[in-house]
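hey
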């Protein structure tokens, strides 16, 4: 299955979570390898949309909020570097929409 390319990606998820340094579970350093920074959150959003357009989603778990999906595959950076990631999405039952939750780097990143 595919996550719809118009799925919700909250801007704060990019600028206040993924692209900002965090003492614990930091993702900004990993994403900077592909040229993603606070200066270009729109580029990260576009790359995530391309990622879900090209990769298959797999159901991960179901809970009271809805159905969680994992999407493993490449994330093409603005500098041409390709990161291997697994993005996590939620089909939120209450809102009847898909929402981006987070991403994880994969050990097979090239």
């Amino acid at each position: 299955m595919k996550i719809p390319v118009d799925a919700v990606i909250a801007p704060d998820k990019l600028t206040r979570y993924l692209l900002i340094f965090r003492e614990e579970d930091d993702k900004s350093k990993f994403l900077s390898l592909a040229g993603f920074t606070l200066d270009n959150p729109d580029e990260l959003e576009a790359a995530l949309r391309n990622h879900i357009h090209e990769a298959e989603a797999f159901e991960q778990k179901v809970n009271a909020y809805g159905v969680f999906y994992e999407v493993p595959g490449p994330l093409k950076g603005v500098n041409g570097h390709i990161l291997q990631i697994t993005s996590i999405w939620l089909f939120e039952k209450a809102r009847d929409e898909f929402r981006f939750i987070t991403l994880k780097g994969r050990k097979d990143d090239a």
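The helical segments are 11-18, 28-32, 41-54. The chain has one domain: 11-105.
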